[in-house]
Amino acid sequence: MDESILEAIVRASYLALGFSSPNPPVACVISNSNNDILATGFTQVIGGNHAEREAYANLEKNLKINHYIEQFADQIADDNADPSTIQFTNQKNISNSDPSANTNLEHDVYVTLEPCSHTGRTPPCRDLIISKKPRNVFVGSLDPNPIVESQRDNKIYSQSGIAFAISTELQLVGQAFLAGFFKRIRKNRPKIIIKSAISADGFYSTEPAERLSVSNQSSNVYLSMLRAKVDAIIVGPKTTEIDNPSLNFRIPEYMKADNSKSKLNNENPDVLFWESIMNFSLDQDIQTHHRENIIEYQPIRAFVIAKNQILSKDFIHKQKVLQELYNHKTKIVFYILPERQSSNQATVFDSGDLNKNDPDLIEFGDSHGNLIETDPNNASRQIDQSLQDSILSISNVRIQHLPSIQWADYICKDLADLGANNLLVEGGYLLYSEFGKILDEEDEILVVQNKNLRLNKGSKFDLVSGIELGSDTELAADQKSNPQTVSRKMIFQKKIDSDEWKVYKGR
């Protein structure tokens, strides 16, 4: 496959990731027989165009622009021509000869995921493609969505005179960005990325705990863009207390554009995702698109807290301000930790499913549609009234009580139900421990180690064995005793100033 087509597919996939959820981040390229790219498209926000429909819409725009240029090439080329005298008035003749209306336009379609064949919020993309009569349709992966699988009939392409083929190259490229969607559909769980920034001597927090930026400023640029590429970010009670975290995606003022590129590894999906973060985070056009659509790129902000935790006024104010900034469109979830004697079952319901006459359930809400659920017959599931009032002062918030066992798995299923394909776990110890237990081969661990910073004491990150801790060569005793500390395959490594990034497979 032509390299320029693969590069366009990667770029479009990157733009779709974190933007199209819960729909998959699909990319589509339309080319002519000479492999010249005529148009690209990627899946828009939910309710908008799928990648194929977007690509054809862009094709029509491009052809119209080229048509106008060709129609008036002589006038435009005349350096002495007065721009005000160039005539664009014969719209009827232009429209009648517009090549975008020519169904015989010879072209090929490349798309990372099988075109949909069912009617949802948009008409079937398969029908659109067949109506446009391309020579070839190249697909990366078949869609695991049961709705698509039940209506699969790719013979319809050949019956319409269109060659249909699965492309291994497209599959490898698409997998880098579709992995989270595949996992959510197949396992009802998002792909998990556990992230920790650690010092040269292996600590991710100080003792006593205090707010501290461990990664350097250059790394923070890429870590910020990583937030735009996931659908949910979660932190634990200590991080919430100490850091007053925002958990939003933002482009720092010091995040300057740099359009220099390195060659991407299109043959390894695991590596390609992280290389894309490095390659595209400073791209001027990509930064512009993220700025212009900053609300759509915001992840769900999730906080695991204790039922009697005191949330600072600064934290509450920060979350209120963010909700106002994002027009109350972004979601916030608070997960209330269980006590040891609490029920093993968590009550789950959405406001639309709630039986308001049920005497065993009480709904607490406000004018913004906030929802909290609790069981009045179980005192251990009651949260502190002041905590409840603080949370409910934030708009578009949801409160969930966690079961006493396997609550990390429960959170994953809950976020999957909210449409999250990718989850970023940012710490601290409690979340590292609980989410570390459920990692599988599709999940990943990101360790960002600042080689110029030593903390001497604090909390050590121990989900990965064999991390070089400055000049230390042996694992600390607490790491050796932790059964979750295992050797994991490193799939990506990158030095960013004083920081070294290492990414490991979950299993």
Concise summary:
Helices cover 33% and strands 18% of the residues. With 507 residues, the protein is α/β, with parallel strands linked by helices. Helix 1 packs parallel to helix 8 and helix 8 crosses helix 11.
Fraction of residues in helices? 25-40%
- Give me the count of strands: 18
Strand arrangement, largest sheet?
Answer: 11-12-13-10-9-8-14-6-15-18-17
Distance from N terminus to C terminus (CA atoms, Å) equals 32 Å
Radius of gyration: 26 Å
Low-pLDDT stretches? 86-103, 341-370, 468-481
Structural class: alpha/beta
In percent, how much strand structure appears in the residues?
A: 15-25%
User: How many helices in DSSP terms?
Assistant: 17
Mean pLDDT: 83
Identify the overall geometry. Answer: globular
Query: Biggest sheet, open or closed, and with what strands and sense?
Result: 11 strands, mixed
What does this structure look like?
The chain is of the alpha/beta class and 507 residues long. The chain has 17 helices and 18 strands. It has helices at residues 3-16, 51-71, 73-77, 91-96, 125-132, 146-150, 155-159, 168-187, 217-228, 237-243, 269-280, 284-292, 313-325, 385-392, 407-417, 429-436, 477-481, and strands spanning 27-31, 37-42, 108-113, 136-141, 163-166, 191-199, 203-205, 232-235, 300-305, 332-336, 362-364, 371-374, 397-401, 422-425, 444-450, 459-460, 490-496, 499-505. It has an eleven-stranded mixed β-sheet, with helices on both faces. Helix 14 links the parallel strand 12 (371-374) and strand 13. Helix 1 (3-16) runs parallel beside helix 8 (168-187) and helix 8 crosses helix 11 (269-280). The longest helix is centred in the N-terminal third of the chain and has 21 residues, at 51-71. The radius of gyration is 26 Å and the shape is globular. It starts with a helix and ends with a strand. 40% of the residues are buried.
